[in-house]
Specification:
single chain; 343 residues; alpha+beta; Alpha-Beta Plaits; 2 domains; five-stranded mixed beta sheet
Length: 343
């Protein structure tokens, strides 16, 4: 059976990333709970086995809980608090050399991965203080000679894992942000590409409707670009596209509305009332300003199709289709001109 390929945007989404981490953590806790249930029942620790069963049931519940449920994040917080409370209680009532104290080392990792940095900083600090106080209160007299070394090693190990968790959280966020930027940017021109363009279009439409009375969709094509590649080579053609992108930037207030759709086709989103004059001025500017590269002076032109709309239900695909028809008309009319359709 053919599987549908996963969208690249899935891997650059912070929520999806945390979902994978959460499920991995739940698998570990579920497996550990199952093993401990069997071991505790085997040695006759019925109460501990029942508590592990509750934790296992809670783990399964979080796994299948709808992520869009408005109380999901609170449920995860309660789950982490329940888990941490169980570990702290286990440390409080277990012998010093039972080995259960090592479970405190999962506090920073679990906090950062499941709750985020802001909550994790405070929770990790509170857990460290509580565990240290419990160990000192319970065992300081009986194991006084060992206590200093035990606490120093525990605190240092905890601080090491805490620091790694904190640093990893910051690095992961930066990496995801960098990957999102790379995925949505055209590598040649540095303009935005068409990835997630529908979502970005909807946001731009709402901004233009509220501030400029509507949106102007400007579709631009470099005339006879194939001839440039055939005559001068693809390196010159690439340099021309970079030059054209720089001209777009110099004519625009922000890069947020500039897109390279593919090949020599670009689009710009502008206020409805100014897009016609902008398009005509830009078309003339490109025509009058030659491109000079490696001793070559190339005069090139562009054709532009413009569609304006003030409809709140407009879609990118519809405007693109209408602008493409206008662009075709501009090409048929001899190129180096602008054709506009006002809806």
């Amino acid at each position: 059976m053919n599987r549908k390929p996963t969208s690249i945007n899935f891997w650059f989404n912070d929520d999806h990333f945390r979902e994978v981490i959460l499920k991995g953590f739940l698998c570990v806790i579920g497996a550990a709970s199952t093993i401990l249930i069997v071991l505790n029942l085997f040695v006759g620790q019925t109460i501990l086995a029942l508590l592990e069963m509750v934790l296992l049931a809670f783990t399964i519940g979080v796994w299948f809980m709808p992520r869009h449920w408005r109380l999901f994040k609170w449920s995860v917080l309660f789950y982490v608090a329940f888990l941490f409370s169980g570990i702290i209680a286990s440390i409080a009532f277990s012998p010093l050399f039972s080995g259960r104290q090592v479970w405190v080392l999962i506090f920073p990792v679990a906090s950062y991965l499941m709750l985020g940095r802001r909550i994790a900083v405070s929770l990790s600090a509170v857990c460290l203080v509580m565990v240290s106080a419990i160990i000192i209160n319970r065992f300081d007299g009986e194991y006084e000679s060992y206590m200093r070394g035990i606490l120093i090693n525990l605190v240092l190990a905890y601080a090491f894992i805490w620091g790694l968790s904190h640093g990893a959280e910051m690095v992961i966020k930066r990496i995801l942000e960098a990957l999102r930027k790379i995925a949505s940017t055209d590598p040649l021109t540095g303009l935005l590409n068409r990835r997630n363009i529908d979502t970005k279009f909807n946001a731009a439409l709402q901004r233009k409707l509220s501030s400029a009375g509507g949106l102007g969709f400007v579709l631009i094509d470099v005339d006879h670009f194939k001839d440039v590649n055939d005559t001068y080579g693809h390196d010159v053609g690439d340099a021309l596209l970079v030059d054209f992108a720089e001209r777009l930037r110099s004519f625009s207030e922000t890069d947020r509305s500039l897109y390279r759709l593919g090949g020599e086709e670009f689009c710009v989103w502008l206020p409805r009332l100014t897009c016609q004059s902008w398009s005509e001025a830009f078309c003339q500017y490109v025509h009058e300003t030659p491109f000079v590269f490696q001793g070559h002076t190339i005069h090139y032109t562009i054709s532009i199709g413009v569609v304006t709309s003030n409809q709140t239900t407009e879609t990118f695909q519809r405007l693109y289709s209408l602008a493409d028809k206008c662009l075709y008309q501009a090409k048929e009319a001899g190129r180096n001109n602008v054709v506009t359709n006002t809806l």
